[in-house]
Each structure stands twice: as structure tokens, then as C-alpha cells.
Design brief:
The chain has about 350 residues and is an alpha/beta fold. The protein is built from 8 helices and 12 strands. It is globular. It starts with a strand and ends in a 56-residue tail after the last helix. This is ABC transporter domain-containing protein.
């Protein structure tokens, strides 16, 4: 059976104002390869700025790369828009925003609207699945697990909540509920539980584990919170500086370390931090800047007349796939395809 998620030699650099990677800019993600099968739960780990969110966004079809680099359910994550529109591929990021023309384009979801209107406004949803996510019910002795009922209490949402008055945690519950309403096959989570209380987070993780075990869903979860995760994932993927360091089953990690998952990851990040400090110290002793020079890609520097190959605002940066400049070549696959050469 083919993997549900397959990343093959993924290399990516954010494009500059002209839609192409800035000359000399190092790849943010470089030659990353791993795959996951149906039913597997993967923790995507790494320090701040390692590239976890970028990888999840690429998997979620939010950045265009060569179709051969990223396949979800055997299809191109970016080019096959039916993946996300059908609900088979669901992405839940740390920030909940909506597009508003001429108002910064993206603003936080804080308008005066009820949770009920937002949740019930999504069409094509199984009512039983929706009720399972939002309602709390009576706990029978047969169904009781600790003090909560997995079948009837997941997010425990009050449908009368008004989004502009709800707390961050309440708004997060509504966001998660809307992202889980359709029966996903692949779910991408980027620090989505950061605002949840202990009970809501525990219930959600148990529900997601059940989705993988019973329906064969695949989940990739990037997080820095490790409470209750020692036995939750089936696989661990560790990224550092945009490069793959580790992609193994959880059992292999347990064989490598007798510590808890949090302490194990802490040791990895501490070693990474110490190596970074040693490298910066060596650069400083050689009279070099401690940090590598950042290549400016958000604006064109110099005289455009002398840099005809770096046309200012040719339309690609606005999301177009065709140039607005007469005679310019259009993209075939991706602004990052050149990185594979």
C-alpha cells in the first residue's frame, strides 16, 4: 500500500518579491525525506525556526513546490485542490485568521458571531460526528474513562459563545471543532493545543488517537508541549535548521533513550543549541560575524535597469501563476523547482 504522506527530497526557499528565491539565499528546508502510512501518528519536533511550520504548510498545499517533492494520498498537495476542499486533507495552524480585502488581508477571527453559526455553517457534515465533538452528555458506568466520556465529550462547546467575547481557549475549541467536522484522512496540526486546558487537550488527543486506530487516519502534530505524549505518537520526526535529523518509530526512540519523551527531546535541542554556540564562537574568533548574513528577498536592491532579470513586481508575488510582464516566462511547477538542479 502506498504511503498516505510522502516527502521526497523536499527543498524550499521562500520566494522574494519577484516570485523567485533570492540569489544566494540558503534553503530553509533542505533535502527532507520521510513517509507515513495510514493509521500512523507523527510528532514533528524541532527548535523555534527549525522549519516545522513551513513543512506543515507545504504538506497542507499552502506553498507551491514541485509535485514530486510532496505527495498526500498519492496526489500533489498544492496542485490538487480537491484534497483540501473535500476535507480529506485538513490543516489546523496556530493562528486562526480570515481574509478581509483591504484590511490587512488577514485578521483574527474575533467578529461578533456565535459558535453555533460558525459550526453549523459548514455543509456536508455528519450530524453524529458534529454532536460527538461539541456536546457533553451523561456518562454511563460502561462508557466512563476516568471522569470523562470519550463518546460524548470531546470539546464541550457552548453554542451560544460569541467569538468576540470568548476566551482564547474557547475560540480555539471552536477552531478545532470546525477543522475536525469532516472525516479527514490526513490531519496536520501546528501547535493547535496551546490554548486548551488540561482536560480539553487530553480529550482531544484521545479522540485523535481513536481516529487513527479506527478509521486509519494519518496525523502529523508539531508541538512543544509533551504532557501525555509519551505513548501517543507512533513515529518521531526531528528537524534542525531545515534538515532532517531523525525519522523513526517511537520504539526506536525508546531504545535510544531511557528518559521520558520530553527529556529526550530536551537533550536533542540542548545538544543542538550547544553546537550552534560553539560554531558562532569559532566564527567570532576568526573575525567573522556570529550569524550568517540574511539574504534580503522582500525588496529589490539596486538599479532595476541594471538588473533586468529581477523585474520588480511581475505579478508572481501576488499569487499569480502567470507573469504580468510581456515576454516573461511563466512558472511550470514551482518557484523552487530550480533548487533541484
Amino acid at each position: 500500500m502506498a504511503p498516505t504522506v510522502e516527502i521526497s527530497h523536499l527543498t524550499f526557499t521562500y520566494p522574494g518579491i519577484d516570485g523567485r528565491p533570492p540569489p544566494g539565499a540558503p534553503p530553509l528546508i533542505e533535502d527532507v525525506c520521510f513517509s507515513l502510512d495510514a493509521g500512523q501518528r507523527c510528532l514533528l519536533l524541532g527548535s523555534n525556526g527549525a522549519g516545522k511550520t513551513t513543512i506543515l504548510k507545504i504538506l497542507g498545499g499552502k506553498h507551491m513546490v514541485d509535485p514530486s517533492m510532496v505527495r498526500v494520498l498519492g496526489r500533489s498537495a498544492f496542485h490538487d485542490t480537491a484534497l483540501t476542499s473535500s476535507g480529506d486533507l485538513s490543516y489546523l495552524g496556530g493562528e486562526w485568521r480570515r481574509d478581509v480585502a483591504f484590511a490587512g488581508y488577514q485578521v483574527n477571527i474575533q467578529m461578533d458571531i456565535s459558535a453555533e453559526k460558525m459550526i453549523f455553517g459548514i455543509a456536508g457534515v455528519d450530524p453524529k460526528r458534529r454532536d460527538e465533538l461539541i456536546k457533553a452528555g451523561h456518562v454511563s458506568s460502561e462508557e466512563q474513562v476516568g471522569t470523562w466520556n470519550l463518546k460524548s465529550q470531546i470539546l464541550d462547546i457552548d453554542l451560544t459563545w460569541r467569538m468576540h467575547k470568548a476566551s482564547d481557549g474557547q475560540r480555539r475549541r471552536v477552531q478545532i471543532c470546525m477543522g475536525l467536522l469532516k472525516s479527514f484522512k490526513v490531519l496536520l496540526l501546528d501547535e493547535i493545543t496551546v490554548d486548551l486546558d488540561v482536560l480539553a487537550r487530553s480529550n482531544l488527543l484521545s479522540y485523535l488517537k481513536k481516529e487513527c486506530e479506527e478509521r486509519g487516519a494519518t496525523i502529523i502534530y508539531a508541538t512543544h508541549i509533551f504532557d501525555g505524549l509519551d505513548d501517543w505518537p507512533t513515529h518521531i520526526v526531528y528537524i534542525a535548521h531545515g534538515k532532517l535529523q531523525l525519522a523513526v518509530p517511537l520504539e526506536k526512540v525508546k531504545e535510544m533513550s531511557q528518559l521520558s519523551l520530553m527529556r529526550t527531546v530536551e537533550s536533542w535541542l540542548r545538544k543542538e543549541r550547544n553546537e550552534d554556540r560553539r560554531r558562532r564562537k569559532e566564527r567570532k574568533e576568526k573575525g567573522l560575524p556570529e550569524f550568517d548574513k540574511v539574504v534580503e528577498g522582500s525588496r529589490v536592491i539596486g538599479d532595476p535597469a541594471k538588473n533586468a532579470d529581477r523585474v520588480i513586481n511581475n505579478g508572481w508575488a501576488a499569487g499569480r501563476l502567470t507573469s504580468t510582464i510581456a515576454g516573461e516566462e511563466n512558472f511550470v511547477f514551482s518557484s523552487n523547482s530550480v533548487l533541484r538542479q
